[in-house]
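User: Hey, my collaborator sent me this sequence without any context and asked if I could get a structure. I don't really work with proteins. Can you help?
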Amino acid sequence: MRIGKWSIGGGSAGASTASTASTSGSTGSLVGRVLIGLLVVYLLICVVVGWYWSREPDMAPVNTVRDGQTLPVAGELTSTTVAHMMSTLLNKPGGFISNDITPPGLWLDNMPSWEFGVLVQIRDMTRAMRRDMARSQSQSAEDRNLAKAEPLFHFDNTSWAFPATESEYATGLDELEKYTDRLRRGDADFYARADNLASWLGDVNTRLGSLSQRLSASVDQGVITDGSRPREKTPWTEIDDVFFEARGSAWALVHLLRAVEVDFAEVIGRKNAQTSLQQIIRELEATQEPLWSPVILNGGGFGMLANHSLVMANYLSRANAALIDLRRLLEQG
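Assistant: No problem. I've predicted the 3D structure and written it out in structure-token form, which is a compact way to encode the shape of the chain:
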């Protein structure tokens, strides 16, 4: 009996242990399913948010009316446009993404490339304003607000802290807006001369030429030497980055050229350069057509699949050709 009792008692303990193990296993399995479910939901949220953050701002013109009247001061629209573009970078959905270190911004690369294209044009125009447009001659003192804004816009665009990129750019934006306010009050200068415009267009010419070359290098057409240095094919991992950098740069240039058309209207009319300027704007506007493909295709020039880089390079090259004509007209006596 004692042995049987022990036998019965041992069986009860075994059943209890098995039941406990089963309950523990079920709990562990439930926790695992919950964690997997939460991870899937998180990833879906990141995908949706990432898609929303990757939407490019529209091409709506910068407001040219203040207090019911068209902006009357030369340079005001150009300065306002640069401020508008920087404000767009900082305040668009997702804010400034290039320095994000957490998902979904960490996983995005197209929008940071677009941001960099815009940023380059902001830097170039701010430098041109500080160096030429806000000074009557080379020996004149530079504007105090532009002297502060321009280096702040050149701050590292990938810094996330100590200090964060956004804080530096926001400070630069404040300085630019102070310059604009002083311009409105007549306490700052803007010289809408042909040489000042031609100098900035020279920077644009260089930027467009470089972008066009990098876009065209998406296809292997053999080694083309430039002096002693061979030009290499753009790596396939960078093709979409170059494409969106070019798209952002073109977006910024459309806004800037629209502003230039107003602020330099007198000199452009005197040089009969309206047609060339409008052609540049028209070619650059074509680069902003909706992109219906979910990926940047890199097909052959006459292949079954499109090559988005070559299409973009074509528009930039045509704009650059018109830009060369415009500079020639401005530099003629």
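In plain terms: The longest strand covers residues 224-226. You can pass these tokens on to your collaborator as they are.
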